Structure formats: structure tokens, C-alpha cells
Amino acid sequence: MRALFLSLLLIAWPVAAQVYTYIDAEGNRVFTDQPRSNQAQRVELAPSNSMSAPAPHYAPPAAVATPEPSQRYQVLRILIPQPDATIRDNSGNLIVSVNSEPALFPGHRYRLLLDGVAVAESPRSPVFPLENIDRGTHQLAVEIVDTQERIIERTPNQPFHLHRISLAQKRRINPCKLEDYGVRPECPLKDKPEEKKDIPLIPFL
């Protein structure tokens, strides 16, 4: 079972979103916004920097459905991370939390997009753990889709900035020792210096 080292953000909405995690009956780790199990533990959200968001960029949806009046959503938004947030996580991990009002109707599901590519879907949980995201600026968006893959609702692209320490920076902070080569990612075997061999002393007769 993989352990996630998560870099999370505090949100600025009037009602603070909470994230919980627990192990289900099949041994899988589940992330949710509701403490649905007695074993659920609250995930503490670490603060991070954020700036005022620039004008949003809209990506044209592939297909947009016209929902029935009884199945319209008043709100669809990304709660975590905040718009234009700066996230610092050396593993490139992130939790994304979304919210819709009302909650998902039967047959609908959330679809999360990272840089325009669908990376996760869920018919119930609005919490998505992501791993090993590259450093730099990225765009998040969330869609609600139906069983026919039609887009019911979609948010604008929301930027965030991920900072990760480079291997060179890690080597400067903690220089490689001979026993570290081939063990630490920042100390590859190809960079291992040749070991000096002791030349035996030959006594003169």
C-alpha cells in the first residue's frame, strides 16, 4: 500500500472543507470529505502561499449536454488548491478537493483534468490524491459527466505552481558519500568517483 506524502492548502471559503482518510474493507486507502467510517482520520491541511488569480482561461469542452431542469448544478468549483496557489512538495504530491451544489445526481461523476488531460474520475468522492506532479505551473479543471460521457458542467482552468527541490539542490544540501551512490536518487552510479586503490609498498633490499 502506497504512503502518500501530501502537500495541502488551507482554503478561503466561508465553510472550511475537510479531508478524511481511512482503509476500506478491501484494504484500499480512501480519501473523502465525509468521516463515513469510525476509523476515518482527518488529514491536516498545511498552509501555502497564494496570490490573486489572473483572468481564467477557458478550454472548449468536447461535448456539452443540456441537463434536465431538475438536474442542474448551481455551483461547481475546486476548493483545494486555491487559485494561483504555490505548493511546495518534494515528492510532487497533491490532494485536490472539489465541490458541487447540489451533490452529484445519480449517473453523474466527477472528472479531474490536469493540464487538459483527465487524470481521475469518481462517482461519489470529491477528493482526488495526485502523485509525482512535475515542477512548474499547471492547470486544474473539474467536469461533471453523465453515463454517455457528455459534459454537464465544467470549471474554468485554475492554475497552481508546484515547487520541488532539484537533484542538484539536494546534492548541495546533503553531499553524496561513496555509500550513497546507487542508493539516493540524487547520487546515481554514473557519477560515482573512482575509488583510489592503495599501492602496496615494496621494501627496498
Describe the structure.
The protein is mainly β and 205 residues long. The protein is 3% helix and 33% strand. The protein has 1 helix and 13 strands. It has one helix at 167-173, and strands spanning 19-23, 29-32, 41-43, 49-50, 75-80, 85-88, 94-101, 109-114, 117-122, 127-130, 136-145, 151-154, 158-163. β11 (136-145) and β12 (151-154) form a beta hairpin. The protein is elongated, with a radius of gyration of 23 Å.
Question: What's the quick description here?
Answer:
By secondary structure, the protein is mainly beta. It contains 1 helix and 13 strands.
Distance from first to last alpha carbon: 67 Å
The oligomerization state is single chain
Q: Using only CA atoms, what is the Rg?
A: 23 Å
Q: Report the helical percentage.
A: under 10%
H/I helix tally: 1
Element pattern in H and E = EEEEEEEEEEEEEH
Mean pLDDT: 76
Name its key features.
205 residues; mainly beta; seven-stranded mixed sheet; three-stranded antiparallel sheet; 13 strands; elongated
What's the structural blueprint in terms of helices and strands?
Layout lengths: L18 E5 L5 E4 L8 E3 L5 E2 L24 E6 L4 E4 L5 E8 L7 E6 L2 E6 L4 E4 L5 E10 L5 E4 L3 E6 L3 H7 L32
Parallel strand pairs: 6-13
Antiparallel strand pairs: 1-2, 1-3, 4-6, 5-7, 7-10, 8-9, 8-11, 11-12, 11-13
